Amino acid sequence: MSTRWYPIYQRGGPQLRVFLPNFWLKLVRPTHEQPPNIVQFSCSMQMTKYDIRNYLEKIYNIKVVDVRTRIALGPTRRVPAKGYVVKDEDIKYAYVTLPKDEKFVFPDLFPVDNKAKEEEEATIKQSKEGFKQFLEKNKERPNMPGWFSI
Amino acid sequence: MRLTQFLLSKVGKYSKDYSNLPDRYIKRAMEQVEWRNPKGIQYKPNAVAKRTKYKFAMHRPWTSQFREENAPGVHHAKVFVEPIRKWSFFRGDRVEILAGKDKGKQGIVKQIIQERNWVTVEGLNCVLEKVGERKGFEGAYLQVEKPLLVTEQVALVDPSDLQATPFEWRFTEDGEEVRVSTRTGRIIPVPATAEETIDYKTKGTYKEQPKDTAANDVTQITFEPKLQTFEMDVMNSMGIKEDRVPPKYYWY
Amino acid sequence: MFKLASLSSSLGKLTLSSLNNYKNAPLVRCLSVSVPQRGLMEFFDDEKNWGATEVKSGRSWKKEELRLKSNTDLHKLWYVLLKERNMLLTMEQEANDQTQLFPSPERLDKVEESMENLEAVVRERNVAYHQLERGETGERPGRVRTGPFGLKSYHKMCQYLIPQHLNKKHRETHEEYRPNKDTEDFLLKYREKLYLTKKRKQRRNFNHVIGLLNRFPNMDMQALKEQYPDVDIEKAKASRRHRGHFVPK
């Protein structure tokens, strides 16, 4: 049987099990301010609250107190250069409550590295100036090869 | 879809080999989907509106420059590309240039753009391009290699006498297909650089990344044939017992 | 076997402790590495990759490699891949929200390709079992069915508790196709449309071949024939648009 066919359940039949779940779950930055123990996820549209709870508890070993879900309307937008309006797919969000004493702060994944940026800018500036000097030096002697100098 | 456009819209094998990217990613990166029918019961289940004609030039399909060149609303004149049966020019081949300002010079093939039958030769057939011009800086000139047609503008060089030569694909006695110079009969070997990618020089010298599975673990055989389905085997190993028999059901 | 190993998703790096079901399972030698608990931080990449411009990775798992692995190993690998995909999706989403660069997006495709291959291998094994035991594939059955407009399509069957002849509701909603005047008219027009599309495509290819012949007279004709099998090349060569408007010498 295909791994993606979920068989019909009848009373007295064997328990239905999923061995290779293909649900996805994204941890997203909360759209609104939340208490420190509430985490926002976006998930596959087919997932139910029970699925989300089981998914986190069994696969990620995270204690879950409560799960609430909502479906956000997908945004509408105009197709570039064509102009007709299309609607993107709806998104299911899950708000997962962790135990009271746990805290989760969404990390800053793109730390501003000022030092590296400054260094890069300095090297660009330096090379630009070097090039300018080179041009200045060769201004008075056209058609002279580059190696011919003191 | 038009057959010619279909053929053109495919990225050639040799032009993507060096990047070592999965085909799936290349397809996803160059695709410009305007709109796709959502999943579910639909009048047209898999309907999709997307760009079908692309212009292939020097920029590779997964780059932002390619996307800019093929931006929505931008259309290009049709390009005629001569059909070739077997691609014969590889990265690292020594070739002689037969046209242009560097005619008669020999160089090494640096890049392949198979969709247009193009190769670039290292340091030859260059033009000066001005880059970085802005207020307070005049900009600098860069030497940029221009592409050459493999069908008429370059010729392979025979390794025995270092002269340009016509060639043929022939089979050796071991059944291996090789390029043979028709002038001298010598084999023109495919250079080792042909298998080089951006991630490794040769497959043997690949440096394992932290998340890679070790080669030994990949080749280790743990499979034992059993008269069980995947589900039964996993349940067995996890100690789950299930002896309820599913009641009768009907397929239609 | 060259050393190019597969992606992220390594068997060796499997987090055994996160899979409750495996706590009592006998450990395979290569799977005995366990990783400390990271909880919700498993949804994020390694901290040293935050803000990186490139993250190198190997290639995806191939089917022939997965065929060597036992069912239990495949089951474990699936969860490693699933976690990796969730991590990549989280990182991609955050990068998009912050209008930042998501480094090496091909990792996502590598993981998904591995998952597809794994599923295919599992399916192969199950089909083999069902063929041996019952003489059938055990896959979801299907048949070609004629729809209400007389168009044929492949119908994947569903499971029902009662047979079809007793299922009144199903019979009412899924009526058998009977040819009638309206559908015959429709099909005639529909087939004409398909025929015209095909002819148009042939004509376009024919014209394209003439364009190629005009531009590349010394072209490899065998290659041309292989690329355009539906075009009569002799006819294209004889056409006035190829040879010009004069009497041939």
Automatic annotation (TrEMBL), chain A:
One of its GO terms (cellular component) is mitochondrial large ribosomal subunit. Transmembrane segments: none annotated. Its main location: mitochondrion. Keywords: Mitochondrion, Ribonucleoprotein, Ribosomal protein. The keyword Calcium does not apply. Pfam families: Ribosomal_L23 (PF00276). InterPro entries: Nucleotide-bd_a/b_plait_sf, Ribosomal_uL23-like, Ribosomal_uL23/eL15/eS24_sf. It is found in: Mitochondrion. The keyword Nucleotide-binding does not apply. One of its GO terms (molecular function) is structural constituent of ribosome. It comes from the Eukaryota. GO terms for biological process: mitochondrial translation. Belongs to the universal ribosomal protein uL23 family. Component of the mitochondrial ribosome large subunit (39S) which comprises a 16S rRNA and about 50 distinct proteins. PANTHER family: LARGE RIBOSOMAL SUBUNIT PROTEIN UL23M (PTHR12059:SF5), RIBOSOMAL PROTEIN L23-RELATED (PTHR12059). This is Large ribosomal subunit protein uL23m. It comes from Tribolium castaneum (Red flour beetle). The lineage of its organism: Eukaryota, Metazoa, Ecdysozoa, Arthropoda, Hexapoda. The gene is AUGUSTUS-3.0.2_34645.
Automatic annotation (TrEMBL), chain B:
Transmembrane segments: none annotated. Keywords: Mitochondrion, Ribonucleoprotein, Ribosomal protein, Transit peptide. GO terms for biological process: translation. One of its GO terms (molecular function) is RNA binding. Residues 88-115 form the KOW domain. Belongs to the universal ribosomal protein uL24 family. This is Large ribosomal subunit protein uL24m.
From TrEMBL, chain C:
It comes from the Eukaryota. GO terms for biological process: mitochondrial translation. Pfam families: MRP-L47 (PF06984). Keywords: Mitochondrion, Ribonucleoprotein, Ribosomal protein. GO terms for cellular component: mitochondrial large ribosomal subunit. Gene3D superfamilies: 6.10.330.20. It is found in: Mitochondrion. One of its GO terms (molecular function) is structural constituent of ribosome. Belongs to the universal ribosomal protein uL29 family. This is Large ribosomal subunit protein uL29m. It comes from Tribolium castaneum (Red flour beetle). The lineage of its organism: Eukaryota, Metazoa, Ecdysozoa, Arthropoda, Hexapoda. The gene is AUGUSTUS-3.0.2_13863.
